[in-house]
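Worked Example 4.2. Consider the chain below.
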Amino acid sequence: MTARSLVAIYRNPSYSPRQHRTNDTAILDATVEHFTKDGWEVRRIGEADVEHGRLPAAALYLNMCQGPLASQQLLPLEDDGALVVNRPSSVLSCHRHRLVKALADRPAPFPRTLILPTAARPEMDAVRALCDGQSQLWVKRGDVHAERPEDVVSARCEDIPAVLEAFARRSIPWAALQEHIPGPIIKFYGIADQRFFRWYGAETGAAGARPEVDEATLKRIAFAAATALRLEIFGGDVAVPDPHHPVLIDINDWPSFAPYRAEAAQAIGDYVAERIANRPRTHAP
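Applying the procedure from the previous section yields the following structure tokens:
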């Protein structure tokens, strides 16, 4: 291993459905190019390689893994002080059953959410209390982010048991029941030190008109959640029931940055390079 060796870990395709597969690969490729131009030795591996223990030694790991097994395999690297971006502990914290707990002290406004095992019949009093006058709830798989459309569904309160059974039949152990937050949806992207923050309306796209929102509040919410999770490269979704009171509804590790790929890759590369330069030396030269 040299001091300028890098391992880029590409996400399992199951966590990058449809067009996300190409976009997720493209942002990591573009970020890696930042280092190859600077003379770094680069190895590219997939999430499955990590799951099977095939992990080369390196000075830097650019980590797009999302699955629990690969993230668990990477935890010893983080514990030993290796530079892994994003940290596997932060990736695991983005899994919904952990995310709800991580945001429990309200670093950012977040919908009321119940995490339930899919194999057990739910306590309907708790479900009805969550509905609280709403006709429907969101039901989301409670582990990793959505792999297919049916991993996030809207359901009437009385239909929740059947929806949970359907999740259980697909071997999804946990489900997140979440209140609906009305209003337009905003998608955002950020880097931990705030050098990069971009957002747009989900319905209109990056080139369209943006929903009315207090941008300072939006930014504060996004970075507060990322800080709580110790996420460095992140994105997410916010609902805007009122322009002055946006509500975080999801946050995830290392999104595709697709509308802003070139500038995002440059910003990520610069951020990581500064992290390397500012790391304390652990060995005498």
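The longest helix spans residues 261-278. The CA atoms of residues 175 and 249 lie 15 Å apart. Compare this with Example 4.1 before moving on.
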